[in-house]
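Hi all, long-time lurker, first post. I run a small reading group and we've been trying to get comfortable going from sequence to structure in the token notation. Rather than ask abstract questions, I figured I'd post a concrete chain and ask someone more experienced to write out its structure so we can walk through it together at our next meeting. Sequence below, copied exactly:
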Amino acid sequence: MNGIDMKKLYDGIIIGGGPAGLSAAIYLARAKYRVLVIEKEKMGGQITITSEVVNYPGVPETDGKRLTENMRQQAEFFGAEFMMAEVKELNPDGDIKKVVTDKGTFETLGIVLATGASPRKIGFEGEIKYQGRGVAYCATCDGEFFTGLDVFVLGGGFAAAEESVFLTKYANKVTVIVREEDFTCAAAVADQVKKSSWD
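-- Answer (accepted) --
Happy to help. Here is the structure in token form:
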């Protein structure tokens, strides 16, 4: 393998250090592959802002930080390596693929993309401060925590409409705040919201 820096060659590079990326790291490292996990912001991903996790299989109750830190330690125990860096470019052609980061270029036989999701923020006062403690971005993940409470859903698109209907299973009252004159999603979906939770 002429011209390849073996210190920078990995069997697999995982881009993203959330639960999906950490799960991949555990399996690959345990199978004796040389693995590098690259995370841009914080190891653990979006779930780290969740103060109570009760729907993760096999874990009755924890929080996002503890859950993902345990996953990271488990992957590290099997030999996975970790790096905080921003991926700038991927060159997936050929047998040896390249991952270009702000901390150098790394070569690998395979790339796993586990970049997760990042909710679009609205920007209201207290939004960041109360993330995971009253401000949520996933009704199916956090709806149960709002049982018996009055809930506000912001948005008029498909996701907001669907989640507002789902929240009626738990909330005392669901108020939907839409910026436009009406919902921007399909009329059939909007009608379902209006019948069950319109305010």
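A couple of things your group might point at:
The two ends are 66 Å apart (CA to CA).
The mean pLDDT is 90.
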